[in-house]
Amino acid sequence: MKQKQQIAFLLDTLDTYYPKEVICYLHHRTPFELLIATILSAQCTDDRVNQVTPGLFKQFPNVEAFATAELKDVEEAIKSTGFYKNKAKNIIACSRRLVECFNGEVPSDIESLVTLAGVGRKTANVIRGNIFHIPSIVVDTHVKRISIRWGITPYEDPVQIEKDLMTKLPDSHWIRYNTQVIAHGRSICTARSPKCLNCMFLSHCPYGLVHSQKQLPIEAQEALAQGHMY
């Protein structure tokens, strides 16, 4: 099957089973809060971040409060998100740069965003897509894993995956591709023990077609190995 046909099927099926509207799983009220929440989400679940941020933003209500915060206070507030020492340093440095260079406002262009401490292309694209509605592809762990399993990108490096997907997916799907794939990755195409036999994408998934055979009963696997239908 040609890849264009495969991608068309994948996108249509995503739209059928998952919401078309963009869903942000990190709770926030402002662009700055989403920026901080996204920095915290590195090597941490969204649920954990959402447990931490209400108290964090009550203690530090705006960018100026973070910019003047004591390092130990930020560390203590975000400790449960993991890697808290480095995250705290980045959050304070990021906030200071926003105050000093951007009048306390979160910029929309990726060139400016990636100059902020703790902000790479993934975080920048989360902000661009969810706040400024600029077509962007966010390569998180789900997008990386599932895009590779589907065989629509051969790359392992997130930046290469992002650029590759930008050439293959219509920009009208860029933003929602991430949120839809996250939903699929959490429910069916999990990192461990994916539910391939229950997957609506199975007929168009090279990984699933191989892996699903391992999920069949032993007698079915033996029949397939011998060239018989089960």
Automatic annotation (TrEMBL):
Residues where [4Fe-4S] cluster binds: C189, C196, C199, C205
Highest taxon above the source species: Bacteria
InterPro entries for the chain: DNA_glycosylase, Endonuclease3_FeS-loop_motif, Endouclease-III_FeS-bd_BS, HhH-GPD_domain, HhH_base_excis_C, HhH_motif, Nth
Keywords: 4Fe-4S, DNA damage, DNA repair, DNA-binding, Endonuclease, Glycosidase, Hydrolase, Iron, Iron-sulfur, Lyase, Metal-binding, Nuclease
UniProt keyword annotation of Chaperone present: no
Pfam families registered for this protein in UniProt: HHH, HhH-GPD
Reaction catalyzed: 2'-deoxyribonucleotide-(2'-deoxyribose 5'-phosphate)-2'-deoxyribonucleotide-DNA = a 3'-end 2'-deoxyribonucleotide-(2,3-dehydro-2,3-deoxyribose 5'-phosphate)-DNA + a 5'-end 5'-phospho-2'-deoxyribonucleoside-DNA + H(+)
CDD domains per record: ENDO3c (cd00056)
Molecular function per GO: 4 iron, 4 sulfur cluster binding; class I DNA-(apurinic or apyrimidinic site) endonuclease activity; DNA binding; DNA N-glycosylase activity; metal ion binding
Entries under Gene3D superfamilies matching the protein: Helix-hairpin-Helix base-excision DNA repair enzymes (C-terminal), Hypothetical protein, domain 2
Cofactor descriptive note: Binds 1 [4Fe-4S] cluster.
Enzyme Commission number(s) from the entry: 4.2.99.18
UniProt domain HhH-GPD: residue ranges: 40-187
One annotated GO biological process: base-excision repair, AP site formation
Cofactor(s) essential for the protein: [4Fe-4S] cluster
Enzyme class: lyase
Family listed: Belongs to the Nth/MutY family.
Function per UniProt: DNA repair enzyme that has both DNA N-glycosylase activity and AP-lyase activity. The DNA N-glycosylase activity releases various damaged pyrimidines from DNA by cleaving the N-glycosidic bond, leaving an AP (apurinic/apyrimidinic) site. The AP-lyase activity cleaves the phosphodiester bond 3' to the AP site by a beta-elimination, leaving a 3'-terminal unsaturated sugar and a product with a terminal 5'-phosphate.
Protein name, per record: Endonuclease III
Organism: Cellulosilyticum lentocellum (strain ATCC 49066 / DSM 5427 / NCIMB 11756 / RHM5) (Clostridium lentocellum)
Organism lineage string: Bacteria, Bacillati, Bacillota, Clostridia, Lachnospirales
Gene: nth
